[in-house]
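Bit of a strange request maybe. I'm writing a small parser for structure token strings and I need a real example to test against, not something I typed by hand. Could someone generate the tokens for this chain?
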Amino acid sequence: MGEKHILELPGWTLSVCCGCGSVAEVWLGSDACGNRRAVRLVRRKLNPAVLSKERRGAALYRKLCGRNPHLLKIYQTGETANHLYSIMECADSLHVTDRSFVPDTLAARLERAPLAVDEVQAYLDPILSGVEYLHDRNLAHGDLQPANIVFVRGVLKIGDPGLVLRGDEEISGGTAGFRPPWKASGFEADIYAVGILIYVMLTGQRPALFPELPDRCCLPWIMPLNLISLRCCERNPKLRFRRIGEIRTALSAMDSQTVNGTGSISYVPNRRAG
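Reply from user aminoacidic:
Good idea to test on real output. This should exercise your parser:
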């Protein structure tokens, strides 16, 4: 398999497969000058509708990704006889040998240890920055989840733009547990995914367990962020956050309440999101 990929991308040596999904593989690649990049490959044997979505998502995302520090850069896109490909920024490595490369992702960090509340807040700010930048330009990411959030020279970046769509379009696909259990627009799906990201970062739980809180959680510490998570995922659209700016406002209010000792944000969830 590796040799076939090398022949398909002249000028690039693809040495290690960093990850595989249902649609794409990501390989560690290097050019003749030794520049290391991530190379995302999508098989052209897939359903034409899937390929069309991939082409469109990459084209929409590439126009904007270099303008926000928290969106993973795409340097080049193209097609070969067997694949669509994207040449992207390479994530930092947690472990690299001749045969393996483990990228530094939010998923990998969550596997190592639970996150403290201040760490969750520190990760949220760049996530919201990248998502809001897309939303302000009428685009949605469509597949926010820990494995698609990477670190490049220590900076958090949102990657994997294969499902990028117009924000008011109905979402299709995405990652189980991070997509709404109702018909949703791209904007709504991203906000729901932000809520689940908060939940998994706060609790260390799988998204399927949302909104259950494990006994080990210190409720007074996590409750303000947990309430924000619940509002992102609220079934009732009148109670659900509609814009990333509303999440930012709630986070600012939470910080103010923490400083002033006035307690947590007031919100009673309508029902389970799942």
